[in-house]
Every structure is written in structure tokens, then in C-alpha cells.
Amino acid sequence: MDILTVSHLSKIYGKGETATRALDDVSFSITEGEFVAIVGSSGSGKSTLLHLMGGVDRPTSGKVLLNGQDVYARSDEELAVFRRREVGLVYQFYNLVPVLNVVENMTLPVALDGRAINQDRLAGLLDKLGLCGKESHLPSQLSGGQQQRVAIGRALMNAPAVVLADEPTGNLDTHNSRDILKLLQDSNRDFGQTLVMITHDETIARAADRIIAIEDGRVVRDERIR
Q1: What is the pLDDT confidence band of residue 33, given thresholds at 50, 70 and 90?
Q2: What is the pLDDT of residue 62?
Q3: Please, which pLDDT band fits residue 170 given cuts at 50, 70 and 90?
Q4: Do 45 and 22 meet the contact criterion of CB atoms below 8 Å apart?
Q5: Residue-range domain boundaries for the chain
């Protein structure tokens, strides 16, 4: 069953002679529980695509459907709720709140929603992410790899429909990159989590089930690996 559908998606920045077409008529679907890597060089449009899939930015034309619902039929306020509840975002530079500890950062989307924290899920994620004993640590007291684990925990805490990871290993050394990739693969396999990962590295991309390559804002390859 398709959980995410991108239909004739285009994004143009600017107007007239200074207009830049970041995405040009992109279409594909992702099935529930799939792990997809989107690859491309810098400026290819892959991060723009991820932001449009996650409701962070609005397209110039085209649609994004999540569970059959048009993401951009929502108001800005409804989009904010959508991002908290339905999408888990993981960024290269973690985007943790420096004055919040590990648990507070991981549960921030739940707190912003005014909902009760699922303590069993929190405990399970802390264990899975190797963060037990670090619950009260601030981001400044953690290594880069540990901070990215917290960011992944935050993305998974709400059990979102899809996790979107933008260069999640781009700021890490080889050892930590391998660990983060393993965690993403485990979340996909153990939780059935639908996962879309942006990367410029084809070697990292091959951890996924499928690779979609973007060049000059267009899909040039869609390859199933396993």
C-alpha cells in the first residue's frame, strides 16, 4: 500500500530572469514500511524535495499525498500539527534545543502537542538508541553521534507515518555514520517505519531498499536494490 505519493511536483524560487527551478515535475510513490534513499549532488533538488514531502515548504505546483490525504490542502496551522504528528524529521546538524536534556528533546513534539508521553515507547527508544544513563544530559554534554541518536529518537517518538532524514550521517565520522545507518535500518525493520533518507553518498544510499536519483530537479533513476 502506498503511504506517500509525490505527483508532478515542481518548485520554482524567484521570478522572471532570476527564477530557479529547484524541482521539475517529479512523481513517485513510496509504500508503507519502505526504506528509500534519495541521492544527488549538491543543488540537485533533493533537499527541496524532502522539505516538500515533510510539509516544511509549499510547492509551486503538484501534490504530496500522505495516506491519501493532500498535505498542502491544509492551512499553515494545520501543517504545523501535521509535521509534529505525521512526520519525523532528522537533520544533518541535529537541531536539538540546547537548554533541553535528552528526554526533553526527544519528547518535545509530544509536549508541543499537549499530549501525554508514552513512557514505554520512550524507555524502549532510549534503550534502542543506547542513551540509557544520558537522560538528563544536555546536547553540549553529548558527542555528535549521541546528539544524532537523540534527534532520531525525537523523530520516532510520535510513531510518525514517515521519517525523513536529510544527510543524517553528513556531520559524523565513519564509525558513528555506520552506527546511525544501522539504527535507521533497525527502525525500518523492527518498527516497520517508513523511511526516506537524503544523501549525496551512493555507498550510504545502498543501505536502503530503493534508490531514487535526482539531477537538475528531475528523477533520472529509480532503482530497487532489495
Answers
A1: very high
A2: 97
A3: confident
A4: yes
A5: 2-224
**What angle (nearest 5°) sits at the alpha carbon of residue 75, between those of residues 104 and 3?**
70
Q: Which amino acid is at 152?
A: I
**Separation of alpha carbons 12 and 183, rounded Å:** 35
- What is the DSSP annotation of 58-93? --SEEEEEETTEEGGGS-HHHHHHHHHHHEEEEETT
DSSP three-state, residue 205: helix
* Cβ(197)–Cβ(165) below 8 Å: yes
* CB of 218 closer than 8 Å to CB of 40: no
Q: How far apart are CA 171 and CA 63, in angstroms?
A: 32
Q: Which three cell numbers stand for residue 29?
A: 510513490
Q: Per-residue pLDDT for 84 more than 90?
A: no
Domain 2-224 fold is Rossmann fold (3.40.50)
Furthest C-alpha separation in the chain: 56
Mean pLDDT over the full length of the chain: 93
Q: Is the dihedral of CA 172, 54, 38, 207 positive or negative?
A: positive
Cell of 183: 539504527
Strand 2-13 to 69-70 pairing:
unpaired
